[in-house]
C-alpha cells in the first residue's frame, strides 16, 4: 500500500496508541507513536511533515498546552485533537488554537482516516500555493523600477503609447521594457501577466 503521509500519534494510553498504530498503518499512513506531548516536541525538529493526532487530556503537557506550544514553532503541522466525553469545551478551545478538527471518543475509524487524509492534502496544497506566491514575488522583485512602471501600466490596461506618454519616453522604448517584463515574469500573454500580478498582490481582483 502506498505511503499516504506521516501521522504522529500522541496519547498516554498504550492501548489507544496500539489501536491507532494498527488502524492508520493499515490505511497506508507512516505512523510514529509518542506517549507524551513533551517527547513529541523534543523529537519534532527532526520529523518530516505530517499530521499530529493528539489526545486532549494527558498528564504533564495536555493537548491544549501542546497546541499553544506548536503555535510558537516555525514548522506548521495540521493537528487533530481526540476528546473524551465532557471534553467538548476543551475541544472548542483547541479549534480556536488552530486544531483542524476534534474527534469525540469513541469515533468511527473511517472518520479519522478521512480527517487525516483531508488535513494532509489541504496542507500540501497550501504549501504549494505559498511556494508559487513566493516565486511570483521574486519575479516581481527582479524588475527594474522602470520595468515595474511599465508592468503596472500593462496590467491597468494601458497601451504602449499611453504608457510612453505617462513617462515621456518613446513607444519603441516601452516595447523593449514590455518584452523584458514578459520575460522576467515568465508570462506569455497580457492576460497571464494580469493573473500573475493578482497572485503577487500588486493588482486586486
TrEMBL record:
<keyword id="KW-0805">Transcription regulation</keyword>
<feature type="domain" description="HTH luxR-type">
    <location>
        <begin position="136"/>
        <end position="201"/>
    </location>
</feature>
<dbReference type="GO" id="GO:0003677">
    <property type="term" value="F:DNA binding"/>
</dbReference>
<keyword id="KW-0902">Two-component regulatory system</keyword>
<dbReference type="Pfam" id="PF00196">
    <property type="entry name" value="GerE"/>
</dbReference>
<feature type="domain" description="Response regulatory">
    <location>
        <begin position="6"/>
        <end position="120"/>
    </location>
</feature>
<dbReference type="InterPro" id="IPR036388">
    <property type="entry name" value="WH-like_DNA-bd_sf"/>
</dbReference>
<dbReference type="InterPro" id="IPR016032">
    <property type="entry name" value="Sig_transdc_resp-reg_C-effctor"/>
</dbReference>
<dbReference type="InterPro" id="IPR000792">
    <property type="entry name" value="Tscrpt_reg_LuxR_C"/>
</dbReference>
<keyword id="KW-0238">DNA-binding</keyword>
<dbReference type="GO" id="GO:0000160">
    <property type="term" value="P:phosphorelay signal transduction system"/>
</dbReference>
<feature type="modified residue" description="4-aspartylphosphate">
    <location>
        <position position="55"/>
    </location>
</feature>
<keyword id="KW-0804">Transcription</keyword>
<protein>
    <submittedName>
        <fullName>Response regulator transcription factor FixJ</fullName>
    </submittedName>
</protein>
<keyword id="KW-0597">Phosphoprotein</keyword>
<dbReference type="InterPro" id="IPR011006">
    <property type="entry name" value="CheY-like_superfamily"/>
</dbReference>
<dbReference type="GO" id="GO:0006355">
    <property type="term" value="P:regulation of DNA-templated transcription"/>
</dbReference>
<dbReference type="InterPro" id="IPR001789">
    <property type="entry name" value="Sig_transdc_resp-reg_receiver"/>
</dbReference>
<dbReference type="Pfam" id="PF00072">
    <property type="entry name" value="Response_reg"/>
</dbReference>
Amino acid at each position: 500500500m502506498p505511503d499516504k503521509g506521516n501521522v504522529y500519534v500522541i496519547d498516554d494510553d498504550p492501548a489507544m496508541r496500539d489501536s491507532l498504530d494498527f488502524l492508520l498503518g493499515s490505511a497506508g499512513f507512516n505512523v510514529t507513536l509518542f506517549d507524551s506531548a513533551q517527547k513529541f516536541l523534543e523529537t519534532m525538529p527532526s520529523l518530516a511533515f505530517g499530521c499530529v493526532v493528539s489526545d486532549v487530556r494527558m498528564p504533564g503537557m495536555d493537548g491544549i498546552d501542546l497546541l499553544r506550544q506548536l503555535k510558537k514553532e516555525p514548522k506548521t503541522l495540521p493537528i487533530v485533537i481526540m476528546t473524551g466525553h465532557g471534553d467538548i469545551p476543551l475541544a472548542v478551545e483547541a479549534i480556536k488554537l488552530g486544531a483542524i478538527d476534534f474527534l469525540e471518543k469513541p469515533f468511527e475509524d473511517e472518520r479519522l482516516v478521512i480527517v487525516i487524509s483531508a488535513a494532509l492534502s489541504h496542507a500540501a496544497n497550501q504549501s504549494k500555493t505559498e511556494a508559487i506566491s513566493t516565486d511570483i514575488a521574486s519575479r516581481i522583485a527582479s524588475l527594474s523600477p522602470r520595468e515595474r512602471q511599465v508592468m503596472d501600466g500593462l496590467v491597468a490596461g494601458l497601451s504602449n503609447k499611453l504608457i510612453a506618454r505617462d513617462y515621456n519616453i518613446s513607444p519603441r522604448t516601452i516595447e523593449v521594457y514590455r518584452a523584458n517584463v514578459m520575460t522576467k515574469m515568465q508570462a506569455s500573454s497580457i492576460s497571464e501577466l494580469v493573473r500573475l500580478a493578482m497572485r503577487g498582490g500588486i493588482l486586486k481582483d
